[in-house]
Amino acid sequence: MKHGQGTLYYPDGSKFEGTWVKDVREGHGVYAYPNGDMYEGEWLNHMRYPRMLTHAHTLFTLTVKSHDHFSSCCGNKFVKTPIVRRQTVMVDARPQQPLFAFGVIADIQYADIDDGYNFQRTNRRYYRSSIELLRNALDSWSKAAVRPGFILQLGDLIDGHNKLLAASDRAVDAVLKELCSVDAHHVWGNHEFYNFSRDWLLRSKLNSTPQGSQKEVGSNVYAYHFSPYPGFTFIVLDAYDVALLGREESSPGYREALTLLRRFNKNDNLNCPPGVGLLQRFVMFNGGFSKKQLSWLDSVLTSTDERHEKVTIACHLPVHPNSTDPLCLLWNFDEVLAVIRSHSSVVCFMAGHDHDGGYYFDEDTGIHHVTFEGVIETPPDSNAFAIVSVYEDRMELKGSGRVADRVFFFPQSCRS
Ligand SMILES: Nc1ccn([C@@H]2O[C@H](COP(=O)(O)OP(=O)(O)OC[C@H](O)CO)[C@@H](O)[C@H]2O)c(=O)n1
């Protein structure tokens, strides 16, 4: 057990040098990240306390007791130092400032065409005004007290109708022009593949993979992770890794997808859902993850667990059956749920695709599954976007228009 003063070297190259209480970072310490960033300050329950104050009336105190010494180590790098001390940590009791904030928006599906309807003709689609709603979202984000450091764009940026009108390039340029003032992380949805080939997308501005992590999962899978703030990781997943959309008919991914789809869907039109319940997900406009991507996700989460980070996953397709209409569920949702359930660091799974939105809190794991309402089915006098303010212990999602406000407290498992 790590207890007292010592240094822990993490497998990814980061290190924490400071005080431990029963395997938990508590008291004073320095965390050095592999990229050279460092944080020196107070720690409590594994988390940083950057809001140390000097104004007595705003403080309450927490007493951290340290005693004994280290008796185990990671590798052979621990310094075994006997230590007995009591430390008082002062914590700000005033309303807190978020550590950082980010914006979220889903299914803009812009096209310069008149309004239409979804396939079932139950919901109106506002193709032309969706770009106006994006402008309103950008305006709101730019005026936020803590401006979003980045935007999660959850896929289906432009609508498939553009392809039929030979307007794909024009439409995507128009929307990306609006987004040029922000750092957008783009997720790919089915409408990306109606408009563009996977090769084109990988070479385009819709590939927001940060430099350096390009080849992590393999050149043909669009998945990456980034850390906008120490202790927080975001993972972008490729929901059309195993799919008919965007894969060459001769490719293994296409053949694997066709075999899977044909097993469950006997309809001539593979976009027509088979059966009822969860079987409905086996349609051509959905997709799934390859073993390769799942194993990459597993390895990223092993690393974030070890660092006691909080992870948010962004993906076009929802993966929890209680957070979406089953028609919109990822094909192998059960396999990805098994992976994220086997780790402690995931706090939130954000998706789009189901324009009606959805939400489910998985009590077993403490993971919040949020499916964002689609801009495309949002009337021009409303909107569908969010700003998420991130604190040490929670994320506060402030929704606009059809998106509801929510608070996601981080599960104890990623705090200890
Ligand atoms: N029963 C159905 C449903 C759809 N199709 C065809 O499938 C393609 C994709 O449908 P679409 O509604 O455009 O996909 P979105 O990603 O915009 O929306 C997903 C969810 O439905 C939103 O709630 C399209 O070509 C449809 O015509 C079908 O054949 N049979």
TrEMBL record:
Cited InterPro entries: Calcineurin-like_PHP, Metallo-depent_PP-like, MORN, MPP_ADPRM
Cofactors demanded by this protein: Mg(2+)
Record has Metal-binding as a keyword: yes
Keyword Secreted: no
Reactions catalysed, as given in the entry: CDP-choline + H2O = phosphocholine + CMP + 2 H(+); CDP-glycerol + H2O = sn-glycerol 3-phosphate + CMP + 2 H(+); ADP-D-ribose + H2O = D-ribose 5-phosphate + AMP + 2 H(+)
Calcineurin-like phosphoesterase domain sequence ranges: 102-355
Gene Ontology MF annotations: 2',3'-cyclic-nucleotide 2'-phosphodiesterase activity; ADP-ribose diphosphatase activity; CDP-glycerol diphosphatase activity; manganese ion binding
Domain of life the protein comes from: Eukaryota
Listed EC numbers: 3.6.1.13, 3.6.1.16, 3.6.1.53
Alphabetical keyword list: Hydrolase, Metal-binding, Repeat, Zinc
A family per Pfam: Metallophos
Assembly with partners or alone: Monomer.
Similarity comment: family membership: Belongs to the ADPRibase-Mn family.
Identification of the protein by name: Manganese-dependent ADP-ribose/CDP-alcohol diphosphatase
Lineage: Eukaryota, Metazoa, Chordata, Craniata, Vertebrata
